[in-house]
Amino acid sequence: MSSDLTRLPASDLREKIARKEISPVELMSAVLARAEALQPVLNCFITLIPEQAMAAARQAEDDVMRGRPLGLLHGIPYAAKDLVNTAGVRTTFGSLLHEHNVPKEDAVAIARLKQAGALLFGKTTTPEFGHKALTDAPLFGRTRNAWSAARTSGGSSGGAAVAVAAGIGPIGVATDGGGSTRIPAAANGTVGLKQSNGVIPHSQVADLFGNYTYVTPMTRTVMDTALMLQAMAGPHPSDPWSIGTVPQDYLAAARPDGDLRGKRILHSATLGNSLVANDVRAAYERALGRLAEAGAELAELPDGLPDMEPVWKVINHTTWRARFDDMIRRDGNRMTPSLVRQVAMAEAWSGADYQKAMFRRADLFRMVQQWFEDADYVVTPTLSRTALPIEQDLFDPISIDGVEAGELRRNWFPYTMPFNITGHPAITVCCGFAGDGLPVGLQILGRFRDEASILRAAAVYEASEDWLDRWPDL
User: Fold this and answer.
1) From 23, 95, 180, 268, the catalytic residue
2) What is the pLDDT of residue 3?
3) From the candidates 23, 81, 196, 242, which is the catalytic residue?
């Protein structure tokens, strides 16, 4: 395995490819070799496509040698979460019922990466239809954390996060419906962005207008997230939230020069949550110190959020019932029990219950908007503790510092779910390591549709630390 090549960020690789210092064929060979070697250990792929990937790499190399115009990500290998449609490449949604599904068209985000020159080499693991923050499904089993075989990868984009964290591929495509990018990114020490509604068009979502799910970048560095966002962003007629959007200069924003002078940060270690692990709080407070050293003015967020998990659950589970109820009636014995159980919960909710939850969604949006009347960022931990045990069940309580904390969703990631509902951009970056050797995540929330601003803050923070020098011992 060529660890030197697979440890370089996409931002370096693209420049070396353009200068003919690295061959796209050489790079793809290294990525595929590492994927094959680590798949038995990590189980982060559902499908690998070595023949197609190598053919694409040879074409990319020919383009370089012939002096043809090169895209923003020319020759860069990437893997896509198996919820996102890839033309001609199996897309299973982590479900036995779609084990042999091969889409005819790419999702818009995938088509744009392809246009930018990025090369697909595989599809990463997801729980069935991305329904939980733990990555396991009947089709492929469990995906392990990149830093510990005894811990979960998180989810639902667990495979995407692990593949990037383990240095298999430099970038990946994920999705986020309640934290599904930021949760595994924090659990594995990568960068996970959930952009604002419409910034990256979502061409697969069934409910366009009530959408709270996002197709997202997954990377190791803030600059690589900016590269992916620059390639994927922009209006598209398939997504009404995207119409009229104008991409910002994300690459300029992600350069780690300068400071945060004149910026005001509201911060909350709990955001209304009850328990936060001591190691998480310590890493979080250290990160706040770094942000202050960069010149930002810090102020405690005066109010926590109301408990939004019940609101998210009504919106989400009724959506799932509309999508999956008929499927469960036919083939529920072949589907994940935790998905079936959650769909059943929605049977008790009426259309009026759904609409009341949407009213609460509007209230929450306005509340967050008020935060930004006199602040530039809101900063929280990403998770209340490090990655959960590999055998953790969705419906069992979690433990924080030896104390039973309660239900997983409400108590592990209360920081992520609210901003799927409001649509505000949020990014997680590694802010240290706990005593168990596992990464801790810092979440930075910004103004609606101002992704450039949070990339800026994340890049300044990333440059102040040396966490990128650490790699999991595989």
Assistant:
1) 180
2) 62
3) 81
Q: Count up the domains in the chain and report the number.
A: 1
Look-up of token digits 């045990």: 389
Alpha carbon distances (Å) from 260 to 297, 371, 449: 9, 18, 19
Amino acid identity of residue 258, one-letter, is: G
156 classed as catalytic: yes
29 is catalytic: no
Domain-embedded: residue 411: yes
Tokens of 237: 């007629």
Q: Residue written as tokens 């989400």?
A: 316
- Which pLDDT belongs to residue 184? 98
Q: At what angle do helices 222-232 and 10-18 cross, to 10 degrees?
A: 70
Does the structure show a pLDDT above 90 at 302? no
Categorize the per-residue pLDDT at 1 as very low, low, confident or very high, splitting at 50, 70 and 90.
very low
Tokens of 311: 């609101």
Residue 262 zone, left/alpha/beta (φ > 0; ψ -120 to 50; rest): left
Q: Specify whether the backbone of 306 is left (phi greater than 0), alpha (psi in -120 to 50) or beta.
A: beta
Tell me how far apart the alpha carbons of residues 1 and 32 are, in angstroms, rounded to a whole number: 9
Range of the domain at 44: 3-469
Residue 474 belongs to some domain of the structure? no
The β-bridge relationship of strands 398-400 and 403-406 is antiparallel
Measured CA distances, 227 to 59, 68, 253, 266 (Å) = 22, 20, 11, 28
Q: Quick one: tokens of 8?
A: 């370089």
Residues 191/438, Cβ–Cβ less than 8 Å = no
- Residue 334's CB is within 10 A of a number of other CB atoms, namely 15
Does the residue 206 lie in any domain? yes
Where residue 341 sits, what CATH number does that domain have?
Answer: 3.90.1300.10
C-alpha 472/C-alpha 474 separation (Å) is 6
Q: Which of 11, 29, 156, 196 is catalytic?
A: 156
Amino acid at 333: N
User: Phi, psi (5° rounding) for residue 441?
Assistant: -110, 145
* Collapsed DSSP state (helix, strand, coil) of residue 404: strand
Q: pTM for this one?
A: 0.98
For residue 338, indicate whether it is catalytic.
no
The DSSP string of 138-167 is TTTEE-B-SS-TTBB--SSSHHHHHHHHTT
